[in-house]
Amino acid sequence: MKRISTKIVKGLFTAAFALVATTAFAQEEEMSKKVSISGTVDTYFKTNLSATDRGLIAPESSFANETGFALGMANVIASYEGAKTGVVADLTFGPRGEQATGGFNLNQLYAYWNVSDDVTLTAGRFNTYLGYEVISPAANFNYSTSYLFSYGPFSHVGLKADFALSEDFSLMLAVMNVTDVNHNLTGEYSLGAQLGYSGQFLNFYYDGNASLGFEVDYTGGFDVSEDFYLGINAAYQDNDGSGFYGAALYPQIATSDDFTIGLRGEYFKQLSDGGVLDNLPADESIFAVTLTGSYTIENLIIKPELRLDNGSVDIFPDNDGQATKSLSSFLVAAIYSF
């Protein structure tokens, strides 16, 4: 039997090693293209103009409720996208994230499957499809949030199916736990649906009065001109007689490539005593106006904001601690996206 020469063995080994190394490098390079890391960090300074800065005197809406220098949250999103499947892990740390997630630090955690070009299935925890505003401060124009956002759902845990019905029409159907809970301890579930047309969305949520009850919500907006955008949100929520209804307009004007100024005008009415806002009686309302500027420097957004909340009854404290109808405040927020 002829012996294989050492040179041949070394040559085969070198070729095999080169093949393995090349394949591993290609796989690593391909993996790096599919894995992405993004997120935000935000902080702010706030002072009350019509009330003292001592204590937690603030509108009863979510986030930006502290005075002085305060923290928002650090948000880190890791995602992997395959040919047909993918996963997203959205982590939050800080007061804004803790309030939104109930202290779990998991804003979103879900996997998805693109069954076809027109159908996508998503399972896990995902942010709500209802409302104009979201948890991430980088995705909202105003830094403080509306009453409609604060008392609708934040997130859901369950299974949803998205359908692209045509170029303009979309449909989403979902089966979920009741809103804003990770663990189903009651055996009760909720149903969700969204019908979209050309950037306008009609949203539905129902849990049989197990938690939120029933909510119908319209969210949309229009480019009135190249520099002027008008956003719209209207909602009605009822849980066995407790709930709210209201509407908000979001006109925004871009004065330059770096600066945009916008207004949020919101009307919010409570249906029953202690239903949503503890200190707002039944059939009473709040009208809130928030004027926000947005200045962008690379990945940093600076937002000065003036807010006035006015109730139909005396529900806000003034500088002397006496109840009054209005509360005014000013803040400056800094948001960095990466």
Task: Explain what this protein looks like in three dimensions.
The chain is mostly beta strands and 338 residues long. Helix content is 12%, strand content 53%. The protein has helices at residues 6-34, 95-101, 147-150; strands spanning 35-48, 68-81, 85-93, 106-114, 119-127, 155-164, 169-177, 189-197, 200-206, 214-223, 228-239, 242-254, 259-270, 285-297, 300-311, 316-317, 323-324, 326-337. The strands form 2 sheets. It has a 16-stranded antiparallel barrel with strand order 1-2-3-4-5-6-7-8-9-10-11-12-13-14-15-18. Strands 16-17 form a two-stranded antiparallel ribbon. The radius of gyration is 25 Å and the shape is globular. It starts with 5 loop residues before the first helix and ends with a strand.
How is the topology of this model organized?
Layout: H1 6-34, E1 35-48, E2 68-81, E3 85-93, H2 95-101, E4 106-114, E5 119-127, H3 147-150, E6 155-164, E7 169-177, E8 189-197, E9 200-206, E10 214-223, E11 228-239, E12 242-254, E13 259-270, E14 285-297, E15 300-311, E16 316-317, E17 323-324, E18 326-337
Antiparallel strand pairs: 1-2, 1-18, 2-3, 3-4, 4-5, 5-6, 6-7, 7-8, 8-9, 9-10, 10-11, 11-12, 12-13, 13-14, 14-15, 15-18, 16-17
